[in-house]
Automatic annotation (TrEMBL):
This is Chemokine interleukin-8-like domain-containing protein. Ligand for cxcr3.2. Chemotactic for macrophages. It is found in: Secreted. Residues 7-68 form the Chemokine interleukin-8-like domain.
Amino acid sequence: MNGCAACQKCRCIRTSSAFISPRLFHRIEILPPGAHCRQTEIIVTKKDKATVCVTPDARWINKVIVKPSLSTVPTRRREVHNFPISTTIE
């Protein structure tokens, strides 16, 4: 138990539900609940290298994140985002 207690905390102390334009996104991290934190954490890194923790219940973030089940549904016009989405499972 050598100083790893800090490794077991949530990364998001405060969250925001304010809209952030996907054009400003550089990266999205989705951290599911686990031993490190009881809540799902969504961390957006913007192109200016600022990081923002987004409330998972925010309606707009759910529209930005493409769910795997919806990716197979054909659509006439699909908007493609060029930012990476990473999920981490411990």
